[in-house]
C-alpha cells in the first residue's frame, strides 16, 4: 500500500468518526478546488474549519497527491499535462456539476485569473471564489488598468499605450527615456517582461517578450514603462465585499526576486514609514473602488529610493504570499474569500485592522524532480510550512517547481529573521534538489537584515 493511500484511509476513517460541526450562516455546503499542491491543501483545511465539504480534482499524475486524500471527494479530470486537466474548463465544470458543488475556488495559477472560466461558472450557476469575469477582464488588461488608475488619481509609472510594432516601441522609448521596461498587456507571474537599456536591444527584446506573452497568455500585445531603479516591490492586500466595503490588510515587501519571480516576502515592509503606509492604503482603496472590486485582491506598487510609489498592476486572485498578511493581521484570507463569494459582509472596518509583529515567507522550490526519501518539517510557536509533500511522495515533472512555503511570525522583525533562519536550518527535504541553502544565505545577508534592499538584490549578490 502506498504512503498516500495509507494516509487517505487513516484520514477518512478519522473523519467518519467525528461528529459533524455546525456550518457558518449563509455559507456553501460543498466547494470544489480547481487546483493542486499546497494551495489545494490550504483551501481544504479552511473549508474543514468552516464546515464545508470539499471536492478535489486531480490529473492522473496527481493520483497520489495529499490534496486528493484530504478532500471529502476526488474526481480525476485528465492526463498529466495541465491543458488536459487543470486548465480544462469543461471538465472542471462537469466535475462541479456531478458532485453538486455550489462553488469553485481556483487557488492561484491555472484558471485563477481566467475571465472566461469565471464567466463559465456563472453560466452554470456555480459561485466563483474571486471577482467576476468582467472585472478580471478589466484588470487583466494592464494597459487599460493603467489608464483607469490614472483617471482615478492613483499614481502610475510614466509609459506608453499598446505598442503595435517595433517602430512604435522605438518612438515611445525615445519619449520616455531609456532604460525602459517592456511588459505584456495580459502579463503576470514575471512572463513577457524585458528590461531594455538601449535602442540596440529593443527590437530583439520586443519580439522575444511578445512571443513569450503570446505563448503564456494567448495575447502578445506589449506596452512600455519607464524603468524605476532602484525600486522596492510593495503590494497591498485587500478584502472587498459585495456591500462596497474595502479593508487593507497591511502591505507586503516582495523585492527579493529572481527573474521577476518572488523568493521571499515579508510584512510589514521595513522600507515603508507610517505616513507612507497610509498613502499606500489610500491609493489601493481608490484602485479597488474605481473598479468596484469584490473578493480578495492585491494592488502592486513600485517604490523608488525617495519613497515615491507608482501603481504597477492589480492581481485579481489569492497571492502565494498571503500567509504573511494573515499572520500580522489575524485575518484568514482564504476563509474570507469564501465568505465574500457567498455574499457575507466583512465583519470589520479599516480602523479595526491592526498590524502587529512581523512575518516572513520563504518559497521552497525544487531544482529537479524525484522521490522525497526523507522529510523533516520544523515546528514551534508561529512556525508554519504550507506544503503538499510527504515522505515517499514522487514529485511530478509537469507543474510549478514550488514545494512549499516556510512562514514564521514574531513580535519584531529581528526575531522573525532569527526564527526563519532556525526553521530553514531544520527543514530537510531529501531526495530532490531544492533551494533551502540559498534561502538561508539570503536570510543571513546583512543587506537583507538592514531592510534597505531592492529588486536588484539577487542580481547584486550573484553578479
Description:
The protein has 16 helices and 20 strands.
Summarize the topology:
Layout: H1 3-17, E1 30-33, H2 37-50, E2 53-59, H3 66-70, E3 73-78, H4 89-99, E4 103-105, H5 115-123, E5 127-128, H6 133-140, H7 142-151, H8 166-176, E6 180-188, E7 191-196, H9 199-217, E8 222-226, E9 231-240, E10 246-258, E11 261-267, H10 274-291, E12 295-304, E13 309-315, H11 322-329, H12 333-341, E14 358-365, E15 370-371, E16 374-376, E17 383-387, E18 394-395, E19 402-410, H13 413-426, E20 428-430, H14 436-444, H15 446-450, H16 457-462
Parallel strand pairs: 1-2, 1-4, 2-3, 4-5
Antiparallel strand pairs: 6-7, 6-8, 9-10, 9-12, 10-11, 11-14, 12-13, 14-19, 15-18, 16-20, 17-19
Helix pairs in contact: 5-6, 8-9, 13-14
Describe this structure in a few short sentences.
Helix content is 37%, strand content 26%.
Distance between the termini: 49 Å
Q: Supply the number of helical segments.
A: 16
Looking at the chains present, what oligomeric state does this protein adopt?
single chain
Number of distinct beta strands: 20
Return the average pLDDT rounded to an integer. 94
The computed structural class is alpha+beta
Please give the share of residues in helix: 25-40%
- Any idea what the shape is? globular
Low-confidence stretches: none
Determine the strand fraction and express it as a percent band: 25-35%
- Cα Rg: 22 Å
